[in-house]
């Protein structure tokens, strides 16, 4: 067992541990992902497909059958909506759509020309 430390020895031990903690902390630091803001307005079809994906448990093939379009069309519309909403996962879709509807100037469906 180690005997009592002097004040200087205790400070030295504390500083040593703090340097170790700093080194460990620096090793695990990960840059925070860039927060993406919405970049554009959703088309009416993108909005319909995004809402169907967000508020239902339907798969993309089921959404496609419901809308009489191909699965690739649904995937394309979802991918475009994700990009415009600044998200990457279906799990984030519902909150992104709700946020977009609450914040003026953020993605709303484009008016039909």
What would you note in describing this structure?
This protein is mainly alpha-helical. The protein has a domain at 44-102: Winged helix-like DNA-binding domain superfamily/Winged helix DNA-binding domain (Arc Repressor Mutant, subunit A), CATH 1.10.10.10. The chain contains five helices and no strands. It has helices spanning 7-28, 44-55, 60-67, 71-85, 93-102. Helix 2 packs across helix 4 (71-85) and helix 3 packs across helix 4 (71-85). The model has no long low-confidence stretch (mean pLDDT 80).
Q: Mind telling me the C-alpha Rg?
A: 26 Å
**Overall pLDDT, averaged?**
80
Order of helices and strands: HHHHH
Q: Count every helix, treating DSSP H or I runs of 4 or more residues as helices.
A: 5
State the end-to-end distance.
83 Å
Strand element count: 0
Report the β-strand fraction as a percent range.
Answer: under 5%
Structural class: mainly alpha
- The portion of residues assigned to helices is 55-70%
Assigned CATH superfamily of the domain at 44-102:
Winged helix-like DNA-binding domain superfamily/Winged helix DNA-binding domain
Query: What can be said about the biggest beta sheet?
Result: none
- CATH-defined topology of the domain at 44-102: Arc Repressor Mutant, subunit A
What is the level 1 CATH name of the domain at 44-102?
Mainly Alpha
Tell me the overall shape. Answer: rod-shaped
Which ranges are low-confidence, i.e. pLDDT below 50, for 5 or more consecutive residues?
none
CATH architecture of the domain at 44-102: Orthogonal Bundle
Structure in a nutshell:
The protein is mainly α and 113 residues long.
């Amino acid at each position: 067992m180690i005997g009592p430390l002097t004040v200087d020895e205790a400070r030295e031990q504390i500083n040593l541990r703090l340097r170790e903690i700093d080194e460990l902390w620096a090793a695990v630091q990960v840059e925070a992902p860039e927060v993406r803001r919405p970049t554009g307005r959703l088309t009416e079809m993108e909005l319909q497909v995004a809402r169907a994906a967000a508020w239902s448990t339907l798969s993309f093939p089921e959404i496609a059958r419901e809308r009489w379009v191909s699965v690739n069309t649904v995937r394309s519309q979802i991918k475009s909506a994700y990009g415009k909403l600044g998200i990457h996962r279906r799990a984030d879709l519902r909150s992104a759509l709700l946020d977009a509807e609450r914040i003026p100037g953020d993605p709303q469906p484009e008016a039909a020309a």
